Backbone:
């Protein structure tokens, strides 16, 4: 992932030969794929070039994912419910196409990657399967995991520069949570966020 971030910066830096630099703050909210409200924020440094800009930031995001499925233990079919809540902090790098120069206005495209710690709360319940690990009070069992993992973040979006110091964005952001010994599959938590930023 770090190599991808460096490659992204390598593509963008030639366009920033006569760059100007700005620092900014961004915040907003949106929804995860279950329709729950999420919040996003970012501290950013932007290097403006002739045609595109390079953005490096410290980004924060929270989101969740829930799902239900059926599985078999022997010849018996059980119902399961899985829930995951994540809060992530990532060092991100992004390429902002049609974003430069510093005093420009209008729409632009954002593509970015990030890497950082993700606080994960994960739980799977079944009302009938007794083999998940811990017994539930009403019958069945559950298994749970909580901890901080190193995960990655990917984003793509559209922005609009309303003023040389103000812009707004709509971004699809995904937190990629790695597998563990308990949770064998990698998980992706997808969100759609709307943020406003001030860059000085």
Residues:
């Amino acid at each position: 992932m770090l190599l991808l971030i460096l490659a992204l910066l390598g593509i963008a830096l030639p366009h920033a030969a006569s760059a100007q630099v700005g620092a900014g703050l961004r915040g907003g909210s949106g929804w995860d794929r279950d329709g729950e409200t999420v919040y996003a924020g970012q501290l950013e440094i932007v290097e403006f070039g002739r045609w595109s800009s390079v953005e490096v930031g410290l980004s924060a995001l929270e989101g969740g994912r829930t799902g239900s499925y059926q599985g078999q233990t022997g010849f018996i079919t059980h119902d399961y419910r899985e829930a995951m809540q994540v809060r992530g902090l990532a060092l991100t790098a992004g390429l902002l196409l049609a974003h430069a120069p510093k005093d420009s206005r209008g729409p632009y495209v954002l593509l970015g990657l990030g890497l950082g710690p993700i606080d994960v709360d994960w739980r799977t319940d079944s009302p009938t399967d007794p083999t998940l690990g811990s017994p539930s009070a009403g019958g069945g069992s559950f298994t749970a995991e909580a901890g901080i993992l190193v995960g990655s973040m990917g984003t793509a979006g559209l922005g609009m520069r309303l003023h040389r110091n103000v812009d707004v964005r709509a971004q699809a952001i995904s937190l990629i949570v790695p597998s563990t010994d308990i949770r064998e599959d990698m998980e992706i938590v997808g969100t759609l966020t709307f943020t406003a930023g001030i860059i000085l």
